[in-house]
Write a structure and sequence with these properties.
Blueprint (H helix, E strand, L loop, with lengths): L8 E4 L4 E5 L2 E6 L2 E5 L4 H12 L1 E2 H11 L4 H13 L3 E3 L8 H14 L9 H9 L2 E5 L3 H13 L3 E5 L24 H12 L4 E5 L6 H4 L8 E4 L7 H13 L3 E5 L2 E6 L8 H11 L3 H8 L1 H4 L8 H19 L9 E5 L5 E5 L13
Parallel strand pairs: 7-8, 7-10, 8-9, 10-11
Antiparallel strand pairs: 1-5, 1-6, 2-3, 3-4, 11-12, 12-13, 13-14
Helix pairs in contact: 1-2, 4-5, 6-13
The structure holds zinc ion.
InterPro entries: ThiF/MoeB/HesA, ThiF_NAD_FAD-bd, Ubiquitin-activating_enz
Organism: Tumebacillus algifaecis
Keywords: Membrane, Transmembrane, Transmembrane helix
Length: 362
């Protein structure tokens, strides 16, 4: 909480570039630049304290302790930097506990660059701490995704999967150990999560998804569903999409080398099945083939390397942070982020299909 004092404490924003070269000492933030001369030890000493933060009186005192009367030279620059927004307020009123602030300080430093008149970094963080995210599937992708959610500080995580850990999973999973073999993945994941982040509420649902009805009872109060399961091929995407559409819960798919689209029910945003519906326009029998005759696809196992879920879950983590905190519009709204093993990635635009089998208004 704020200190309840009218002495304002500020510090130099972390995204301010500080350059020292010859006679010039330059501070740059976006398009604004302030040049201070002379560039000397007294100035360096002073700027170190601007970075650490404090009140103006504090800056004057610590600067003049070592370099008497030097503050008078720096004061006009300090006022100018303050006016241009180079400093941020250190004593913002907020609802986070001291423990939360301690754990997520560096993330809030990152979010501080997106502060607006209405929303500061503490508010972005509070939104994340108050969010509930359901992860469907905690195999390769889902286990990495869970570590992302823990790092981001999501307040309430629900993990749904009926599968058990196998030694052959460990080449690409996070969180699990050889001793976990034979145990339920969700139980091992919850044990890991509780140890790693006691600040987070984590729940396990040991269950497979065999249709949208398996998910619906678990969507109450969920802010975002992450689809990290890839079997049965296509059908799992369809079931998760249908359940979330019915319950009006936003959802994001993170499978294979792809993140997105981020679908928000009852919006003009494309859902994962819009793309599929466009394809069935072109190949009218595709739907029937996949839904009724494609069982052979479901049994196939594919090769996988740890780098895939590690990279892709990291990109999805940014999307989760964007969506839940609202600091910036997610990239995968009406788009998919795709990554190939040739190290290239691209963002492909998507359009909502007016007769989508999932999201069209019926
Ligand atoms: Zn759709």
């Amino acid at each position: 909480m704020g200190r309840g004092s009218d002495v304002k404490r500020v510090r130099l924003r972390e995204q301010v570039n500080v350059l020292s070269k010859g006679q010039h000492f330059v501070l740059r933030l976006n398009d604004e630049m302030v040049v201070i001369t002379p560039n000397n030890d007294a100035l360096h000493h002073c700027v170190k304290h601007w970075i650490a933060g404090g009140s103006e009186d504090h800056f004057r005192q610590v600067t003049e302790e070592q370099h008497p009367t030097s503050w008078d030279t720096f004061k006009p620059h300090f006022d100018r930097l303050l006016e241009l927004g180079f400093f941020e307020d250190m004593d913002v009123e907020h609802e986070l506990t001291a423990e939360e602030v301690g754990r997520w300080t560096r993330m809030m430093d990152y979010l501080s660059r997106y502060e607006t008149e209405e929303t500061n970094r503490y508010e972005y963080m509070r939104r994340i701490r108050h969010s509930k995210v359901l992860v469907v599937g905690v195999g390769g992708m889902g286990s990495w995704m869970t570590t992302q959610l823990l790092g981001l500080g999501i307040g309430h995580i629900v993990l749904l999967d009926g599968d058990h850990v196998e030694v052959s999973n460990l080449n690409r999973t996070a969180m699990y150990k050889p001793a976990d073999a034979g145990k339920l993945k969700v139980d091992c994941a919850v044990a890991y999560a509780k140890e790693f982040s006691p600040h987070t509420k984590v729940e396990a649902i040991p269950q497979f998804v065999t249709g949208p009805e398996d998910l619906l009872p678990h969507l109450d109060g969920v802010d975002l569903v992450l689809g990290c399961a890839d079997k049965p091929v296509f059908l799992i995407t369809k079931w998760i999409s249908e359940a979330c559409t019915q319950a009006k819960v936003p959802y994001l798919f993170t499978i294979g080398g792809q993140v997105g689209p981020l679908a928000v029910p009852d919006s003009d945003q494309a859902c994962p099945l819009c793309e599929f519906t466009f394809r069935t326009d072109k190949y009218p029998n595709l739907m029937d083939t996949i839904l009724n005759q494609g069982d052979f696809l479901f049994e196939r196992t594919v090769g996988s390397v740890v780098s895939f879920p590690a990279i892709v879950s990291g990109v999805a983590g940014f999307e989760v942070m964007r969506f839940l905190s609202g600091y910036e519009k997610p990239v995968t709204v009406n788009a998919c982020w795709k990554f190939d093993t040739n190290m290239e990635f691209r963002v492909e635009p998507l359009t909502k299909h007016p007769s989508c089998i999932n999201c069209a208004t019926k």
